[in-house]
Amino acid sequence: MPTLVRISEIGLYLRCPRLIYFENLRRTPQKIDTKHLLLRSLMLSFSQKNDLEGQLKENLARLEAELPLVYEIEPEEMEPACRELEGEIAGIAQGLAGHLDHLLPCLAEVDLYSDRLGLSGRLDRLAPGSTPSLIRTGKAPEDGIWKKDRLMLAGYALLLGEKNRTHINQGLVEYPRLALVRAAQIHSVDRARVLRIRDRIRLIKEGQLPDRPEDAPCPACWAADICETRHSLASRFF
Ligand code: SF4
User: Fold this and answer.
1) Which of 13, 69, 96, 102 falls between 20 and 30 A from 183, CA-CA?
2) pTM over cut 0.70
């Protein structure tokens, strides 16, 4: 049976297909981004619609104590990240107040997999109406959502749809720092793209190094050195 392709690998593939190849070779785990982990954990920590600001403050104090026990986080990174986020809590709570009916009640970090689809993944939030929701700690596009997130939502919609024997047609992307929650339609064409990308990822994981895309984000890439020295099968022949 072929190994399951993770939905997060679809996001990685869209950044650069070669990253799938190099991640597969990587021996040491990726360094944890403390600020990202903290904000994501905080966003998954509230469960009530009243006094969101109070809940977030209380949960931040708990996360400050607990996260270093669970993850390898340097103490000197944790404290400033918590103080920075503390200063943002009032704005985040105010911005999210109008979206809580779309976000709660929810299940957090839902593991999904399907042998039939050859896909697996851990969904950030399963919102009301079996709606998949992603938490993004970075920038939002001017309108709508990024292509990567659209396809990742389509991947989760496939998994949820198979599990619940239904079609999931809508997803959410949460941008807590920007006080935004954006809804996005999930189209059949995106579901089909996910399956095509799944097949390409399988080939890469079997050892096929893809060509360098022209628009690859190489300057900020951790794999730049090893990537420079590897040539794809195609470039060896032509
Ligand atoms: S260096 Fe560029 S081409 Fe190579 S893996 Fe990184 S982003 Fe992709």
Assistant:
1) 13
2) yes
